[in-house]
Amino acid sequence: MHTAEHILNQTMIRMFGCARSKNTHIERKKSKCDYFLSRQPDNETVQAIEEAVNAVIMSDLAVTEEFMPMDEAAQIVDLSKLPDDVSETLRIVRIGDYDVCACIGEHVKHTSEIGRFEIISHDYENGRWRVRFKLKER
Questions:
Q1: Count of Cβ atoms closer than 10 Å to residue 3 Cβ
Q2: Which of 55, 56, 75, 87 has its CA 20 to 30 A from that of 49?
Q3: What is the pTM of this model?
Q4: In the Cβ-directed half-sphere of 78, how many Cα atoms lie within 13 Å?
Q5: Domain boundaries, the chain
């Protein structure tokens, strides 16, 4: 689920030019992410997001991690959401050449292990688009 959230974040960045999710709640059965957008995605766009995420999942990208000093990590990832008491050494997670971010969560070794990504609901209020999703076994 956590790796799918990374792919969703990068897909939203590429499709909308927005920031990574501002609020994220990752659970085993279903998860949600909030994005700030200038307009509500229509049903065709929501389907396109789902298809784009699944295309990345099916491409079987390697998911790797590396550890680096914070000043080095700041050159390649956004560190604005890190807590004040974070370590000087950060774990950087890469999903092929599709996404890179600092993260402490659990990840698969290859995207093809994720399963099928499915958007189960979404709503839009005051510029915040909340998307809820789950994963299905292939």
A1: 25
A2: 75
A3: 0.93
A4: 11
A5: 2-136
For residues 103 and 82, the answer to whether their CB atoms sit within 8 Å is no
* Mean pLDDT along residues 50-57: 98
Query: Tens of pLDDT along 89-131?
Result: 999 999 999 999 998 889 999 999 999 999 999 999 999 999 9
Where would I find the beta strands (DSSP E) of the chain? Answer: 23-25, 31-36, 63-69, 89-95, 99-102, 116-125, 128-136
CATH node for 2-136: 3.30.980.10
More confident residue, 69 or 79: 69
1 confidence band (pLDDT: 50, 70, 90): very high
What is the rounded CA–CA span in Å between residue 119 and residue 138? 15
Q: How far is the CA of 1 from the CAs of 29, 44, 69, 110, in angstroms?
A: 9, 24, 27, 13
